[in-house]
Amino acid sequence: MKGQLGFLVDIDKCIGCHSCEMACKNQNQLDPEIRWRIVYPMKGNSSVPTERCFLSLACNHCEKPECMRVCPVRAYTKLENGIVFHDKNRCIGCRMCIMACPYQVPQFNSNTKKVEKCNLCAERIEQGLNPFCVDGCITDAITLINFNEFNEIKAEREIEGFPNPNITNPSVRFIPYKPGVQIRRDV
Amino acid sequence: MDRRTHVSRRTFLKGAAATGALAGVGSLLDFQPVHFRHAQARTDISTEVFQNACPRNCYDTCAILTTVEDGVIKSVTGNPKNTYTRGRLCVKGNSYPRIVYSPDRIKYPMRQKGRGSGNWERISWDEAMTEIAQKILDIKKEYGSTLPICLNKYSGNFNLLNYGIEGMMSSIGYTSRAAGTPCWPAGIDAQTFDFGTIWNNDPEEMVDSKYLILWGVNPAWCAVHSMQIVLEAKKRGCKIVAIDPLFSQTAVKADLYLQIKPSTDGALALGMCRYILDNELYDGDWLVRNAKGYEEFFGYLKNNITVEWAAEKTGIPAKVIENLAHEFASVKPAGIWIGYGMQRHTNGGQNVRAIDALVAMTGNVGIPGGGARYAHLETWGFNYHAMVHSPPAGSLGDGDRLINMNNFAAEVLAADEPPIKMLWIACRNPMAQDPETSVMQKAFEAMDLVVTVDQFMNDTVKMSDIVLPCTTLFESPGINVSYWHHWMNLNEQAIAPMYEAKHDVEIAMELSKKLNELEPGSCSFPTDLTMEEWLANEFNAGIYQLFGINDWRELKSKGPVKAESLKVAWQNGRFRTPSGKYEFWSEEAEKFGHHPLPVWVEEYKAPEKYPFRCISPHWKLGIHSQFQQTDWMEQINDKPFVEIHPNVAAQYGIHEGDNVKVYNDLGYVIVPARITTATSKDCVVVYEAWYKDKNFNINYTVKALPADMGSKATGMPGIAFHDNFVNIEKV
Predict the structure, then answer these.
(1) Complete DSSP assignment for B113-156
(2) Mean pLDDT of B678-689
(3) How far is CA B641 from the centre of its chain?
(4) 8 Å CB contact between B467 and B454
């Protein structure tokens, strides 16, 4: 598959349940301290309290990956399908990529002394399967998209709390939260 | 099912090399050998997939598929054959591999020198069984009966075979038993008075609702698979209304959220009923055919209830109540999901009856997409072979002594003639989960022997003399059904028991052997059945017919099965009340000391000294004492907190993260503040859970205050957990 794969994250559907994150951890057999996908709580506002709206993020498989640019040992590869593939076997654990990534995606594993991150379940993609997080999301809030074909007008490139996408052009889009009518007592 | 052996597992690189998926950079040859080595090392691994059943006290009771390589669990996922689980697991289910392989598991029997001292020593199973059996025999000799032995076992594992613990107790004589259920009894009684029993529609058909009120229930945290159904219904045009004193994760997703004053749910329902009555929006035909006492109920509404009054009680504007009532009564099917949280009050049962009445008078009972959905036990008609056993011949006494589980500590201390001297705790963590922790501490201290069966060193184990390690669901077989959905899930043994862990029924057999060795005939519990035989003995013709199978072994190839005939509750209009009708007027209710009608009962109000209601609901990263303690969960959240409204925080000089003492006459807990508009100015929220190595337990402040109902169906009233009043201060 050619093109640029990435994620569409529907914040309106997301219930912040962390199932995606834990499905990733369980299926990829990650070490306890490592989180390839993280469900971040978003800051509250007048229509939704903090810790009631979430941003589920893994690697954004950027068009211009900073991690790859700064890596001294070419541990990162941009695959034809757009996946930013990190090879643990080449990684020397220098942590340059951790400093460079605007999204704090690469993580240092203190056991292996190497960095690791989401490879978008590249092996599963080869088999025509979804990444574990997509299949594990209870409410179908995470979708695998190919930007060559993607045409969802409701999707946004920027959302509050998400770092400026102009640096690396991340392959992720968001559908924002749409509050209902609220009759609240103390606001 | 689906057992297979992998001879070669394709790695990414092999796939990538075959399709030329790598772009440029010329790195392929550089790292290929490493991957090939990796791949070759794995070629002869045998991979099997087993069916498992999540046995937790949870609506969702999921069907799991477990991948095992060379006897080690590699991953778990939802079983797609169970269309409720839908191939997905919640955050807790996905963390199971870490529960099984947690370094914190209790690995072998241990004896503690001095309860709470932490001075544990490893002992053999034989030593443990000898000490326990000898104590049982000594007690029987000293007191002339086994009544000083008390079992406290409940919902930590709902595998049918775990009832073998009750069976073992029955097999040594008459004993004392923690009876009742803390979670949901007020609502069960309410629905028992109204319908004759609890029975909810298949949750999967909620997608067909046109109007759905989620009343005091938070599926986004506590029944995620149902939350998906709710969101699907919403997508199809169903209006979703959430009613909750807290702006829960579920409420955030609703089309309409009403922040009701806590414990006034009945007032809102009755106000809606009055509006529907005045505007003749009720289903008269349904009432004539199916209901008893609706004229009396209408009379009550006319004489006692107004929408304005309901607005005053609930804090929801009259216009909003009218609109809600109008919409609810004008659309069919319209359903209400009644949560367990809203009935944990001194008027909780009455509030559930009022909501039932609202559903019934609009003719939404017995139809697809409608219903007053609470729970059911329709799929639970097993033999309970593991549970039901007779005492040995010559046992003295005339039956077990029931100790109220919902006031356990005080009743254990008060038990007399004979006193309680020994506790056996299984599938429970009363030191962390029960009210009045300080009294519980005293009750444990008053014992001669405390035996706890568990997997982790929780607060109850710490207060025990002997701990026995039990298996996880992956290490023993079993069978599970849900009190919400209508599926049955087989649980296969996927791996050998870890360390020296045993299943509860195996422990029961071991103890029986030892008792009979020391004193022949002292225990009638079978000792020669295999786990598979125990399992087979739970099935009967009724279960087979309900689930459309002829033999339980079919489940091994077929996977989970569903009781399709239960789909729409009460569709035939044959209610299980004394009159056979839906009973607005219930003489049974009157017999149990309640008004025969669903009437308003004043809520429990804050005393002057303790102005804040402390609500202690379930937490999304755990269920009671399970899951939150693993390092996988700790990576997401590793500390408890108290939610405080910003205005209150400002008034008390509390900032985000400040340590706050939450206290009342019973005790206190110190937790960091989380300042949020998710709560109201009169409520603080502390999610109940057991955190490893944290001095946290909200139940130090919770009184064993009974809810209004529960005695009829469950033997004991529930606990008004959410009528807990506290004050707060920055520390």
Answers:
(1) SSTTS--EEE--HHHHHHHHHHHHHHHHHHHSSSTTEEEEE-TT
(2) 97
(3) 22
(4) yes
- Residue B275: what residue type? Y
Go through chain A and tell me how many residues it has: 187
Name the minimum distance, in Å, from the CA of A164 to any CA of chain B. Answer: 25
Provide the pLDDT confidence category of residue A115 given band limits of 50, 70 and 90.
very high
Closest in B23, B27, B635 to A74, CB measured: B27
Q: Does A43 touch chain B (CB under 8 A)?
A: no
Q: Residue B5's pLDDT is what?
A: 38
CA B48 to chain centre: 31
Of A25, A49, A127, the CB nearest to B676: A49
CA B426, CA B155: separation in Å to the nearest integer?
9
Beta-bridge mates of residue B53: B63
A184 within some domain: no
Task: Find the mean pLDDT for residues B329-354.
Answer: 98
CATH topology for B612-730 is Barwin-like endoglucanases (2.40.40)
Cβ–Cβ contact A109 with B under 8 A: no
**What is the rounded CA–CA span in Å between residue B441 and residue B450?**
12
For domain B12-100, the question of CATH label 3.40.50.2300 is answered with no
Cα dihedral: A118, A119, A121, A123 (round 10): -150
Q: Which domain holds residue A101?
A: 5-175
Domain chopping of chain B, boundaries: 12-100, 201-374, 612-730
Nearest CA in chain A to B630: A32
For residue B706, is pLDDT > 80?
Answer: yes
CATH architecture of the domain with residue range B201-374: 3-Layer(aba) Sandwich (3.40)
Query: Who among B96, B227, B680 is closest to A138 (CB)?
Result: B227
CA distance A79 to A89: 17
- Residues of B within 8 A of A48 (CB-CB) are 252
DSSP state, residue A39:
E
A107 in reach of chain B (CB within 8 A): no
Q: How far is B427 from chain A (nearest CA, A)?
A: 25
Ordered alpha helix ranges (H), B241-344: 249-252, 265-278, 284-290, 294-304, 307-314, 318-330
Domain count of chain A?
1
What pLDDT is recorded for position B10?
36
Q: Is A126 part of a structural domain of the chain?
A: yes
**A22 backbone dihedrals φ, ψ, rounded to 5°:** -75, -30
Whether the CB of A10 is below 8 Å from some CB of chain B: the reply is no
d(CA B708, CA B718): 7
**Interface with A, mutate which of B38, B60, B88 (most A CBs under 10 A):** B88
The CA distance from A20 to A28, in Å, is 12
Contact state of B632 with A22 under an 8 Å Cβ cutoff = yes
pLDDT per position as a tens digit, B488-533: 999 999 999 999 999 999 999 999 999 999 999 999 999 999 999 9
Cβ-count burial of B122 within 10 angstroms (0-12 exposed, 13-18 middle, 19+ buried)?
exposed
Contact B315, B693 (CB under 8 A): no
**Kind and range of the H or E element at B91?**
helix B91-94
Tell me the three state secondary structure of residue B674: strand
Picking from B273, B303, B308, the residue whose alpha carbon sits closest to that of residue B287 is: B273
CATH number for the domain that contains residue A114: 3.30.70.20
Sign of the torsion angle spanned by Cα atoms B275, B241, B209, B201: negative
pLDDT of residue B41: 52
Is B22's CB within 8 Å of A15's CB? no
CB A21 within 8 A of CB A133: yes
Query: How many angstroms separate the CA of residue B89 from the nearest CA in chain A?
Result: 7
Q: Are B227 and A15 an interchain contact pair (Cβ–Cβ within 8 Å)?
A: yes
* B490 DSSP β-pair partners: B479
Tokens for B716, please give them: 């004991």
The answer as to whether A40 is a domain residue is yes
